[in-house]
Every structure is written in C-alpha cells, then in structure tokens.
C-alpha cells in the first residue's frame, strides 16, 4: 500500500533530539542531551498525598468527563497567581488549561495560521515548537538571536511582507541557548508586532526557574492591544508526566482554542488538573520553587565551572540566569557535527548538535546544547571532562 | 483587534450538544442528552488502590517525561488483548497510545487529509469526530445509515470521484443511532475501500459494551491490505476523565502519528497509562465488563419499556444491542426541532436534536438522541414520561 500523507505531515520528521537520545540509552553513555527536570525536583511525597486525597474526597470528579476549558478552580487560581506575580490579570475566558505548553503552542498555529502564513521565531529555537508549527504548514522564518534577544531589524524586514501571523518568543532562559531577552527588546518586539498586525506567542516554560539576576517583565504584561498570547507549563515546576499547561490570550483566541481543544482531545486529564490545583493551594509554592532554583543554580554553576576548567578555549558559551540549558559555540572553521558525533560514539557523552534547533537542519551553526538539569553531579563533571578532552584534541587548548 | 483565524477553524463551531447541555445544568432539568458513563460504572476502589500503588512503587515513572508512542507495557498488553479477543494481532509499532479516541480520530485526519480531500462518514455520526475532521478542512460526505449499516451504493458513488482519503465508521452501537453494522456491510465497505484506494477508520468506543446479541468481527480483523485503522478508548470501560485511548494501524501510518503526537502534546499523561495497564493486569476485566454490561442492559431495557409505554406511536426508535444511546425518529411532517425545544424548556427534559449529528446542522432530520447511561433509573422513567406526554400532545396517540 502506497500511503498518501497530508502535505502538513509529509515533510516533518522525528525530532533529531530523539535520534540522539537513542544513543543515550546505550550502557555507559552520559547524557547532557536531555531536557528533563531533575528527578530530585519532583515533590513526590506531596503528590502522593494529594493524589490519595483526590480519590478519597471526590473520585467521580477525577474520573468523569470534564469541560474543554479546564478545571474551573485551577483557571481561577492561575488568574490570581498571575496577578500576584504582577504579570497581568486575565479574565476566566482569557485562559485555557491544555495538555502541556506544547499543546498550547501547537494549537496557536492551528487556530491562527493557514498554509504559507509566516511565523517568525528565534533562530535557534525550541525544536518541539518548530516541528509543531511545521505540522500546520506555516512558513517558518528564523530571526537571529543575539545575547539580548532577537535582531529587531531583521524581524521588521520580515514583518514588512505583511504575511506574518505569529511571532514565537521564549524570552526567559531560552531553549536551547539559555539566553534572556532584555526589556528593551521585549518592548521593541511588542511595538513591531503592533505596527504590523502580528500576534506574539510568548512561551515561558522556565520563568519560575530564575536562579540569579533580576526578573524582566513579560511581553504579555505590556499588552494593551490584545496581541499577545502567553503559555506556561507545570512540566518544569511540578512534573512533565502529568501534561498540564495553560495559555492566556485575548478571549476571541481562547474561544477558538476551546473549540480546538474539544475536537482535538476533549479535555486535559482531570486528575492532573485537580492535582496541580491542590498542590498550588495546599503546599508552599514559594518554598518549593526556591528548592528547585537551588538545585538548578548549583547544577548550572557546576557545569560552568567544569566548562571553564576543561573545555578548549575555542569554545564560547552562555551563562544562563535560569532554566536548564547552556549553549556552546565553536569558531566557524570548526566541525561541530564531527565533534558531537565523536562525543557520543567515542567519548560516550551525548550533547545535541545546534542544527537540531535551526529552522532547517541544514542551516549552518557551530553550536551545541548542554543540559545540566538531568545528569547527576558526578555525571555532569565526568561528561564535561570528556567533552573537554575531545575539544582540546580537536581544537587545541 | 480584528483577529484573522485560520480557514481550518473559522467555520467550526462549538458543539450543539454543549449548547443543549447548558440547559441541563438548570435546576430540575432531567438530562437524557449526555453521553457520560454511569457514575456507578467506575471501579473507584480499584483505581484508588492502584493509583496509590503507582506512587509507592515508582513515582518518577508517573511524573517524568515519557515517550510519544505510549507506555510500552500497555502497548504490549493491548496487543495481547486484541489477539485474545480474536480481533487481530498488531505489532508494537502498529499501535500508539493517545489521549482518548477523539485524539486518535482527529490525528488520522491531520496525518492523511489535505484540505478538500473527501472523508466519508455515516449520516448521522458522532459530532465530536465530525468537528475534528472539519478542523482539518476536509470535504465531509455523509452516507445514509440504514438499519444494517451505511448504504454501500451511495458510498461507491462518492468513492468513484477518486478523492476519498478516509471512510469513518462506528460499526458497533453507533453514536448517535445505537445501530450495529452487519458483517455483510462491513465486508462490503472493506472491499469498496480496497477497490478505490481509501483508508477505513473504524472507531470502536462501545465494542466491549455489547449487552445482547452476537459479536460481529471488526473490519480491522479482515484487513489483509493495510487499509484499516482501528481506534478504541478506555473512556467507556474504565474512565473518560483519564483520557486514554489507542489506535492500531499499518506502521507507516503509526509512524506519522507518533511524530504528530510528539508535536501536538508530547505524550499522554503517563500516570493514566500506568493506571490502565495495572487495572487490566491486576483486576478481573471480564467480571468488570460483565458488571458494566449488566448496568447498561438494565438501563437500555428500562428506556425501551418506557418509550413503548409512554411515547406517541408516531415515534419510531432503535433497539441497540450495546452502547449508550437510543435514536428516535418522527414522521417527516413532524417538527422535531420544536419538540426538542419544548421538551427542555417546558417539560424540563433535555434530548439532543438529530441535526447535531448531521454533516451540516441544516441537513433535514426528524430524529433525536436519547442517552440511557447517565440518568438514574428514576430520572430515566420520569424523563420518558414527560417526553411521552409532550409527544402525544404534539403528535397524537
């Protein structure tokens, strides 16, 4: 049988990260390629207790069909939380609970983009979102990401085509670079979106994981024109396996997303939504987040120290103020691809080659991504030592 | 702000059922309009115990990221179950776990259909699936559903266009009609799909809920040509709130669905997958299903009795051998819409007008759907008495 697939999916491929992760399951391989929260970051005891409580108190609530908008007490609580943080104050109909931020971002493309519409994103950017956008046949345009955020001139050039529907930005501790967009760049992107009639999709999965430096206001908090959607997730602050995220946007957009959610998967697992609600109301969220920040602060510092100690001086790297990733870059004349391949095959350390995060994997880059959240301290040190050895062998001291 | 939505979603609307369900939350309204499992059908004690066990045994498994294909032990178990039932024997890469059968069906359209491709379905059919297909801009064609399944001549006429990608069928106790497709019609549909190069999507949410009559082999069990996909769900046999379903299809299609799943929502809530696995392995599934069948057999019989006793003889109705629904039809000169509206507004009984299940809500029908799974026996009797009173007032004895 010769299957004829839709144009939408015929050109998308399995994530390159997944291919590399296959190597990580081989015995003896240290993975600095993942993006999972540290296992010690999960509040196991609290979740165990709360899950039990859910079934003791109201098992039918956790088992019966629920509404597509999401568990109402959780929606109302998230509104209060956003208000308390000084972010912004969405009405109830300006927020929908979804199955992780991945679904929120994919749905934004489904709801807003026709094939050929332009979607601008940072280059590099999060591969999961890029593939989600590609699965709706959008015309993806990468805007160069600098130390303080995307190049606004480059963005405006693309906006001038009049075909840009969405601008996708991860402003805090971006995946894969760990970079944070400055307040000026956030304001600039907002003004440009407004000027050219585009919607900004601000993805903030790591916002609560700032372990150093000062908070920068979200673009959504500046939104007076109804042009910003803002997605977050419980994956990095509670647990990714429960698949709970949310997105806040103008109610016209949320209305469409509710219909979309209804036809795509009816509603998000309701046990997980009640769990998130009870965790937020019964536990000390600030103390929990401080614990997570301490874990990642430590792991990030350890990685930076090890890079400084071991890596060839040819390799430059970012110094993230939060999140899970460090981005390393080789000079233009170095063979990054050979480095990553030798790293995993000969030195048994997996990293993600930077082209996995480019609009097209054939786009030139000499960068690679390191993750510090998943490995143990011992693995992190050993992994960086091996990468250091290889880097010096290939590129000199 | 004048939001420009994608063509895909600009024409889909919130389900008509949802609008009617709004009335059901008014005090005193009896709902025969839902499609929820009976609350007493949930194995609450077993689920409570198993959930506790999951967190005692391996909490990280239930909280960490998992793979897009689904929990491997559950995939392997479902293969064995299908084999044991004499259905068919999928390889592991011919089955993916998804967030309910709704997601499986929506994804089939995403993976296979370009805008304008024809998708044939029973008329009437399940509104959730129809809206999911519409959200990918397919050209939906309803094929008249008769007592023993769709009109095959009508199907062939559409297939002759050469533009049919998918044929969507609910062969067992169909939603909304409760009708079961005969073996002959199943074979006939398969042969036609093969002849014209179309894929059949066989949705079987109610298959385990046969409470009378003999099992009819699935179309998938006849598939020698790799042209049938088969979706099922735990919603009706375990709990819909956990959102776990699966689909088996040729591995080329499953491969595409895995990528689709990865970009749409990464993976299905892993706690729920482990729960389904443990329930199937630790509990007596046969005894559990017999209990469910007894509940629905009783409720269906009660509804049929009440219809016979109370309704105007002008109303004909189906006698389902399983599932959750009875389909009632008025003569062509009767005003079904007025009947449904008066039923909920004056007589405080909610039913779903049949046009909610047509390809277009403006398509003519004089039918309406009754649900017997959700109401209590008392509500069911009282509801049918009120509908009977109204029907005799409007249409005579």
TrEMBL record, chains A, B:
Domain of life of the native organism: Bacteria
Cofactor annotation: pyridoxal 5'-phosphate
One Gene Ontology term from the biological process aspect of the record: alpha-amino acid metabolic process
Keywords, alphabetical: Aminotransferase, Pyridoxal phosphate, Transferase
Residue span(s) of domain Aminotransferase class I/classII large: 29-385
Keyword Magnesium tagged: no
UniProt-recorded Gene Ontology molecular function terms: pyridoxal phosphate binding; transaminase activity
Pfam families per the UniProt record, alphabetical: Aminotran_1_2 (PF00155)
Record InterPro entries: Aminotransferase_I/II_large, Class-I_PLP-dep_aminotransf, PyrdxlP-dep_Trfase, PyrdxlP-dep_Trfase_major, PyrdxlP-dep_Trfase_small
Transmembrane segments: none
Family label: Belongs to the class-I pyridoxal-phosphate-dependent aminotransferase family.
Subunit annotation: Homodimer.
The protein, known as: GntR family transcriptional regulator
